[in-house]
C-alpha cells in the first residue's frame, strides 16, 4: 500500500502582522532578540485548488490568542534578529533540530492528549529593516520523520463516496454541536461511529477509546487536495504511531474538510485514512530528524524578502493623504478640476519674505510639489512672526539664508516637497554695477535666466519695484506665467502679466472690449511712464522695511496663488481674457472655467475692505515687456542689461518714453487723470 | 439624521443583524471590536491570474541563503506555488458622514498590498468604465480609522445621497447595509448573496 504524503503549509502574512512586528520592535523588543511566542491559524474550509495556508495577522502577538471563528490555532516561535548578518548566520539546522526535540519531548510527556492543537507548530525567523521597510523572513513547520514513512492499510476514501447523504448530514450536525459547545473549535477529536449516528469525544479520551473498532480520530485539515492530507495530520499520525506502536495495528484518521457551497456546509470531500501503525522500537533515545523549512517563491529552501515601503513609509502615506484631500474637492464640488495640471507646475518664488512664505505654503496646499525659493538675505529676529516658514531657531547665529531656510521648512512640513533654496541677488536698473562686479552680475543674471527657464510659473514677491524689472523682462522673453504681488500699508496689488503667446491678438478688436485677451494684458511696469530706478536711496528705514497691516500679506498671497490656479485651470491658460468691467453682471456670466473668471489685477484697500478688478492693456513703450526691450535683450543679452543697470534714462530713451514725457508735459496730462485711479502703491514686502 | 445617513446605534444593530444572517449562510462576516468601536470584517482567498507586478523582486541576499532540499519522502512533490490573493473587507461607521464605509485591501501571501492601479485592473472590466464616472465609488488609499494602517476606501462622500435615492424609490423597508454593499461591493470583488435582502 502506498505511503502517505502530506501537503506542506504555505505561509500567508497579513500586512497587519508586519505593522505589529514593527511596532513591537520599536516600542518593546528594542535590541532584545530573544525568542517570542506567537500564533497563527489555519482553516479547514479551503475551496478546491487553494493551497493549505497558515495565516499570521496582527493578533499573532496576543498572549491570549483566539483564532477567528472556525479557524484553528498554530503555535509559533519568533526569532527576530537585529541585523541581516545574524539573520543569515542563524543556524537553521539547529533551530529546526531544537523544535524537533521539543516535539519529541511533548510526545513523551503526553501533553498532546490534553492539548492536541499544539501539534501544529511553526518557527518564524525574521529581520526587519525598518529604514527601508524591507522584511526578511523564513517559516518552518516542524514535522518529525517518525516514522520515516507512514503507510495506509486501505485506499484513502472520500466521505461522499462511502457515506450516504443522510449519514453525512448526521456527521455534520454532530460535529457542529460538539464544536459550538467549546470556547474554541478543537483541531483534533474522537468520533464514535454507530450506524448513521456519530458521537464526538474530546481527544483526551484517546487512551480509553483507541482500541474500539468504531472509533475514528478526527483532525481538521487545511488541505483541499484529494490525495494529500495537510501538515497538521502529519504530526498527529507521528504522535499516534509513537503512542500506539505495538498496541494497535491500524488507526482510522478522518481529515475533516469543511466546505461551504451556496450557504450549505458539507463534509463530502473529507478523507478517511486507515493508517498502519508499525511495530517500532519504543525506547529510541535519538530524537527523529525534524524537517519543515518552507520553500520560497522559487521553490528553493530559502528565505523571502518583502518590500513594504509603499504602505509603511510615513512619507509615502503623507503623500497619498495630501492627494486625497485635493481629490475630494474634485469629487465633491469640481468634477472638472485638473489636479495633474496643478501638481506638475514648477514654481519659482522670487522673494522669500512674508509674501514668499505664504505663497509657498498655499502652493503646497494646492498640491504643487516643485518650488524654488530665491532671496538674498538672512532670517532676522523680526521675520518669523510674519514670515510663516521661519521660526526663532532660523534667526540664531546670524540667521540662516532665507531661501534655504524656507525651502527646508517646506520639506519639514511635508517631506513630499521638492523644494530648493537659492541665495541670489537680482540686479536692478538704477543700481549701477561697478567694474569689479560685472562678472559676478553676469553670473547672477545667468543663474536667474536658468531658473526662470526651468520653471513654469514665476512669482514676483520682492520688496522693491526695480528688482522686479529683470525677471519681468526675462519671463516676457521666455513666455512664462508671472504672478506679481506688491503691498502698501493697507493696500495690495496682485496681477498676472500678459504672456505674448501670439494667440488671440487680432481676434478681439481693442476698441469695443469688455474683455482683454490674455496675451494683450499689461505687466507690472506697463502703467508707468518712468523707468524703474533706485527707490530705496531717499527713503527712511520705515519706508524700506515691512510696514504693512499684517493681514495684507495673507490676503495678497492667497489671491496670488488662486490667480495662478485659475490660469492653470482655464482652458486658454494665460490666453484667458480678463474682464474690464467688474460689474456683477459680467462677473456672474457663465465662465469658461469651473473656478470662475481670471482677472488681470486685483487691487485691495483694507481701510475700506474693498477690492477692485481692473484690467489694462500692455503698453507699447513699457520699459520691461515692450517689443523693443525684448528684442534688444534677446539680441544683445547681458550687454543690453548692463546698460540698463548703469545708464539712467537709457530704458526711457530706448522705449520712446523720454519723447513722450516731453510731449505730454505741454499737454498737462494730469488734468485728465481719472478720479478712479487707485492711489499710488509702493512695493514692499 | 439626514436622508440616507444612519446613526452609530443604527449601524451597530445593522451589522449585528448582517452577521447573524452571514453565520446562517456561512458568508464569513464577523464582528470585530477595536478602540471601543465595532466593525464588520470578511476575509476571503482567491487565486489570481498572475501579473508581473505581483512578483517580488529577487534579492541577492535571499538567493545566497538558499539551501539544498532535504530528502523527505512524506512530503508531497513540489508543485509550482499557486498565486493566491487575500481580499479583506471592513465595514466601518464614519461619524462625520454618518454612513458605513467600505475599507478593503487585497494582499499577496507575503503581506504586500496591491497598489491602487493594480486593484483597478482586478476589477471586473464591465465595472471599470462604470467606476470612472461614478462619483460615489471613488477609490483611494486611506488610513483605517481604527487600525491606523493604509486601506483602500470607497469614499463615503456620496453614500448618503445615493442611499437617500434608493430609500425614496423603494416602497418597502430595505436592508440598508445589504443594499449599499451589493451596489458598491461587486466593483471590488465583494458579492452579497440575496439572502441578506430579505426584510429586516
Automatic annotation (TrEMBL), chain A:
Keywords: Autophagy, Coiled coil, Cytoplasm, Protein transport, Transport, Ubl conjugation pathway. The active site is at 545 (glycyl thioester intermediate). Residues 4-312 form the Ubiquitin-like modifier-activating enzyme Atg7 N-terminal domain. It is found in: Cytoplasm; Preautophagosomal structure. One of its GO terms (biological process) is autophagy of mitochondrion. GO terms for molecular function: Atg12 activating enzyme activity; Atg8 activating enzyme activity. Residues 329-573 form the THIF-type NAD/FAD binding fold domain. It holds the Pfam family ThiF. Residues 431-458 form a coiled coil. GO terms for cellular component: phagophore assembly site. SUPFAM superfamilies: Activating enzymes of the ubiquitin-like proteins. Belongs to the ATG7 family. E1-like activating enzyme involved in the 2 ubiquitin-like systems required for autophagy. Homodimer. This is Ubiquitin-like modifier-activating enzyme ATG7. It comes from Biomphalaria glabrata (Bloodfluke planorb). The gene is LOC106068070.
Automatic annotation (TrEMBL), chain B:
Coiled coil: none annotated. One of its GO terms (cellular component) is cytosol. Transmembrane segments: none annotated. Keywords: Autophagy, Transferase, Ubl conjugation pathway. InterPro entries: Atg3/Atg10 (IPR007135). One of its GO terms (molecular function) is Atg12 conjugating enzyme activity. It comes from the Eukaryota. GO terms for biological process: autophagosome assembly; autophagy of mitochondrion; protein modification by small protein conjugation. Belongs to the ATG10 family. This is Ubiquitin-like-conjugating enzyme ATG10. It comes from Biomphalaria glabrata (Bloodfluke planorb).
